[in-house]
Design brief:
Layout: E1 11-16, H1 20-30, E2 35-40, H2 43-52, E3 57-61, H3 69-78, E4 87-91, H4 97-105, E5 108-113, H5 118-172, E6 176-181, E7 194-198, H6 200-206, H7 210-213, H8 218-221, H9 227-239, E8 243-249, E9 254-261, E10 267-274, H10 276-290, H11 300-316, E11 322-329, H12 333-339, H13 341-358, E12 364-367, E13 372-377, H14 383-398, E14 401-403, E15 406-408, E16 412-419, H15 426-442, E17 448-450, H16 453-472, E18 478-487, E19 493-504, E20 507-509, H17 515-521, H18 524-545, E21 553-557, H19 560-564, H20 568-578, E22 586-591, H21 592-597, H22 599-612, E23 615-621, H23 628-631, E24 638-641, H24 643-647, H25 652-668, E25 671-674, H26 680-688, E26 693-694, H27 705-715
Parallel strand pairs: 1-2, 1-3, 3-4, 4-5, 16-17, 19-21, 21-22, 22-23, 23-24, 24-25, 25-26
Antiparallel strand pairs: 6-7, 6-10, 8-9, 9-10, 11-13, 11-16, 12-13, 14-15, 18-19, 18-26, 19-20
Helix pairs in contact: 2-3, 12-13, 13-14, 18-20
The protein binds ligand C2E and magnesium ion (2 copies).
């Protein structure tokens, strides 16, 4: 038995015959496209085959051993799965009526008596195959129909389910929903769109009941719709593409995240999420990140960002002028310590307010440090405008402000950088503004300085100097040179002035190149202490070794900071005691300005020094502002006439000044040292004035220790030469 594949197109028919030849004949006759002949050699086999397969037709031999054709047909008829299959009996037995009837009883549809006409068999079979095909088609259509019906039922259920779901979502969702209808023809104006559907969440957002919203124009409900929101809606309606926007609606005081889309012609749907809380949180974070919490001004980070933008603008726009001001309060620091931090905070807030009032809306005002403020002035008409703003700020700050019952007024040092300048980074620009500010402060505060490139080299130098000066003391890089001072009356040695140098590798750095920076950083204090101790030690050693004149003095320069040290007297006492040095050999040189800054304190200190037996001389006299009569109050011993007067005695004015200084000093009981004597004429003139002492290149330059010893051994040998 063989069976071809049972595809819908191929129709199976079953041929049952005990004779293999007959089966081969039938198969050969009926084989053609779309028909597959399945064969069985007995009634049993046929019954078995029909258990699994459906056949369009059974060709059944009557005379078979075992189950004959009639019995097999009866069995087919008895089974409901096979009862419908048409049967054609093929038999060699007679055409007798008896047989035929038996065959019909058994369910035969037709009879073919062997030998039969092949064409007749083919036609009959074709009829049944066609019928079967039609039946199959009907059956399939029925199945499809049934399937469609079930599907339809299912989808209608799903539809009503989803409608219910959507309904509940629509009413219970947190997002607001509004469906708007608009006039299709024109450009859509959100304000003119009419609400045709709305959900409870949106009602809540708009703070109105459904009745007050439905069928109303959106513009009636939100009269202050932002222009950009209307543009957004118009664009969504025009393009048909959905869009998303975050907008603040002033009418309802909420931030909404709105999605808009076009659900159909003439319609616009809005889905809104209330993001007010998130926005507020973001704003707080933003404020914390970019705002100075004390003054509410921009902080350094924001300032830098804005500065970057200004620089970018100036790169793109021809002739774009802007300026950066860096401002430092000159006298803020003592406020915190004297009036407390709360008062300090009030001052800073008031200062911030004053600066803000001077600045224009488009400018950026920031607080960059404790008492440091910075401004970006945008869109300047000319550079002079920046200076005017800077001066106005200074003027405003000078106006007294009332803080906790104290009337305070401040001055500020302001550095200005005018843009556009060739900077890559905003940090560099601010740094230069800071350098200019330092220069302004060095002028005594309350001043405005515009940055120049030369300042940067100076500042760079200061930085280098400060960094390397730190180690100079421990590395013992400082040296003292000693410049002799002579009695002008007889040209004998009266003493020395100790002058410091800094040995950097094989170079000697002069004091003017590092002392001012050491003053700024405070390093001058330990440096000065070293110079003082060193001078005392050397003088004591020389006093041992040489026969120093009775009034011999070692003059040591003191810086303002050193002089201001509260324990100055103690430091001196120690230096003298440690070296067993007679205090009368020590003379401290201080400047006029140091004396004038805090006269009460100074008088007190000077008295202490005098009690110790240490002398004090006023250095560089004539360059400051002190009046001679004022000096009467100070217990000092010497005035040193500044080199600038001595060097140009040809100028009549200087001649008068020197003469006046000498005679008034004598009247007050001071002696006088003239500095910078370079010519004999100068020496003679001063000697004629009875100026006691002279110092200058005419006599000697400052000497190394070695050379000093040589000089001392010539001028002050212990045992007179030759004896
Ligand atoms: P100063 O105290 O007025 O010292 C006198 C300065 O004039 C010295 O410069 C000296 O070399 C110079 N000088 C003396 N005679 C002549 C002259 O005939 N012609 C010219 N052109 N110059 C003359 P130096 O050594 O460069 O010191 C400069 C300044 O540095 C000193 O001025 C002093 O203010 C300061 N200084 C020096 N050593 C120390 C120190 O140990 N401590 C402090 N705080 N300052 C010091
Ligand atoms: Mg001096
Ligand atoms: Mg001097």
């Amino acid at each position: 038995m063989g069976k071809a594949e049972n595809t819908p197109e191929v129709i199976d028919i079953l041929a049952v015959d005990d004779e293999q030849v007959n089966l081969l004949l039938l198969t050969g006759l009926l084989r053609r496209e779309g028909v597959n002949v399945v064969t069985a050699r007995s009634g049993y086999e046929a019954l078995k085959l029909t258990e699994k397969h459906d056949f369009a037709l059974i060709l059944l031999d009557v005379m078979m051993p075992g189950l004959d054709g009639f019995t097999t047909a009866e069995r087919f008829r008895a089974d409901e799965r096979t009862c419908h299959i048409p049967i054609i009996f093929i038999t060699a037995i007679s055409k007798e009526q008896r047989h035929i009837f038996k065959g019909y009883e058994a369910g035969a549809v037709d009879y073919l008596i062997k030998p039969f006409e092949h064409e007749i068999l083919k036609n009959k079979v074709q009829v049944f195959v066609d019928m079967y095909r039609q039946r199959l088609a009907v059956q399939r259509a029925g199945e499809v129909l049934a399937k469609t019906v079930t599907e339809l039922r299912a989808s209608s259920r799903a539809l009503s389910d989803s409608r219910a779901r959507y309904q509940s979502l629509f009413t219970s969702m947190f997002n607001g929903f509004a469906l708007l209808s608009h006039d299709q023809g024109r450009a859509v104006d959100l304000a003119q769109a009419r609400i045709v559907e709305i959900n409870p969440a949106m009602e809540q957002m708009l703070a109105r009941p459904r009745e007050a919203l439905m069928d109303h124009l959106l513009g009636e409900i939100l009269p202050n719709l932002e222009g950009y929101l209307r543009d957004f809606a118009a664009e969504v309606a025009r393009s048909g593409k959905s869009g998303l926007i975050e907008s603040y609606l002033g009418d309802i005081k909420r931030w909404l995240r709105i999605q808009a889309y076009v659900p159909g012609a003439g319609l616009l749907a809005l889905v809104a999420e209330d993001i007010t809380a998130r926005r507020k949180a973001e704003e707080t974070i933003q404020e914390r990140t970019f705002q100075d919490p004390l003054t509410g001004l921009a902080n350094r980070a924001l300032f830098m960002d804005r500065l970057d933008q200004s620089m970018e603008r100036s790169r793109r726009r021809l002739n774009y002028l802007y300026a950066v001001l860096f401002l430092d309060l000159d006298n803020f620091k003592p406020i915190n310590s004297s009036l407390g931090h709360a008062a300090g905070d009030k001052v800073l807030r008031a200062v911030a307010e004053k600066i803000k009032n001077v600045a224009r809306g488009l400018d950026t005002v920031a607080r960059c440090g404790a008492d440091e403020f910075a401004l970006i002035l945008e869109e300047l008409k000319n550079p002079g405008e920046a200076l005017r703003v800077a001066r106005r700020i200074c003027k405003e700050l000078a106006q007294p402000m009332d803080v906790d019952g104290h009337s305070l007024h401040f001055s500020a040092s302001v550095g200005v950088v005018l843009g556009p300048a060739d900077y890559a980074q905003p940090e560099e620009l601010l740094q230069d503004a800071g350098i200019a500010m330092e220069q302004a402060r060095a002028l005594g505060g309350g001043k405005v300085k515009v940055f120049k490139w030369a300042m940067r080299t100076r500042a760079q130098y200061a930085l280098n100097v400060n960094q390397s000066m730190h180690h100079a003391l421990e590395r013992q890089q400082f040296r003292l040179h000693y410049q002799p001072i002579f009695n002008l009356a007889d040209n004998t040695l009266a003493g020395f002035e100790a002058l410091i140098r800094w040995q950097v590798e094989d170079r000697l750095v002069p004091p003017d190149d590092f002392i001012p920076y050491a003053e700024q950083t405070g390093l001058i204090v330990p440096i000065g202490q070293w110079a003082l101790a060193e001078s005392c030690e050397k003088t004591a050693a020389w006093a041992e070794r040489f026969r120093l004149p009775r009034n011999f003095t070692m003059a040591v320069n003191l810086s303002a900071k050193q002089f201001a040290q509260p324990d100055l007297v103690r430091q001196l006492t120690r230096a003298l005691e440690e070296n067993h040095l007679d205090p009368q050999h020590l003379k401290l040189e201080i400047t006029e300005t140091m004396v004038m800054q805090n006269p009460e304190n100074v008088v007190h200190k000077l008295r202490g020094l005098r009690e110790m037996g240490v002398k004090v001389s006023i250095d560089d006299f004539g360059t400051g502002y002190s009046s001679l009569s004022y000096l009467r109050r100070f217990p000092i011993s010497t005035l040193k006439v500044d080199r600038s007067f001595v060097s140009d005695l040809d100028a009549f004015e200087n001649l008068i000044i020197v003469r006046t200084i000498v005679s008034l000093a004598h009247n007050l009981g001071f002696d006088v040292v003239a500095e910078g004597i370079e010519t004999e004429r100068q020496r003679d003139f001063l000697a004629d004035l009875k100026c006691e002492y002279g110092q200058g290149y005419l006599f000697s330059r400052p000497l190394t220790e070695e050379k000093t010893l040589e000089l001392l051994s010539v001028c002050c040998p212990k045992t007179p030469a030759g004896s």
